[in-house]
Design goal:
mainly alpha; Ferritin; 5 helices; disordered C terminus; binds MU-OXO-diiron
Length: 170
């Protein structure tokens, strides 16, 4: 059984993962109308993954005797300044999520909830991958600069999974 404190922290994370899914979805839609089909496909896939992160938490809360809440969502921005800003924003967001996950892990130890602590290790590992992915994409974008042919190849690369062929972490 989860304590009320842990339940609340997990429900707060449910809301954050849901919001991440919304933000990725808005970025995907923006990329699609810019003609960046590969970037859009990558971001749509990632939006689905954030929803999966949310669902995994919801199911866990319920399994452990809590009640997961479906959160209200704010409207994410419709327009982005450019592709580099999109991925800078993604890295910033993923670093924030990592900090939130670490705070939950910390709370689990304080509450002596070793079961949830164990469950959260999946998210700890996932965040390492998420940050790695965002940094990797940003490095690629820096290399490309204003090179249109480079952007074309970058877009095609993301269509088939991501730079380096590693794909989006699941
Ligand atoms: Fe669910 Fe991108 O963290």
């Amino acid at each position: 059984m989860v304590s009320k404190k842990v339940e609340n922290a997990l429900n707060a994370q449910v809301a954050k993962e849901a919001m991440s899914s919304q933000v990725y979805l808005a970025m995907a839609s923006w990329a699609e109308v810019q003609g960046l089909e590969g970037v859009a496909a990558f971001l749509y896939r990632h939006s689905d993954e954030e929803r999966a992160h949310m669902l995994k938490l919801m199911r866990y809360i319920n399994e452990r005797g809590g009640h997961s809440e479906v959160p209200a969502l704010a409207k994410p921005p419709k327009m982005m300044k450019g592709i580099a800003e999109v991925f800078t924003g993604i890295l910033k967001q993923e670093v924030e999520v990592s900090n939130e996950i670490n705070a939950i892990v910390d709370l689990c130890l304080k509450e002596k909830d070793y079961t949830t602590h164990n469950f959260m290790q999946w998210y700890v590992a996932e965040q390492i991958e998420e940050e790695r992915m965002a940094r990797h994409v940003l490095d690629k974008l820096k290399m490309i600069g204003d090179d249109k042919a480079g952007l074309y190849l970058f877009d095609r690369d993301l269509q088939s999974g991501g730079p380096g062929g590693g794909g989006t972490p699941s």
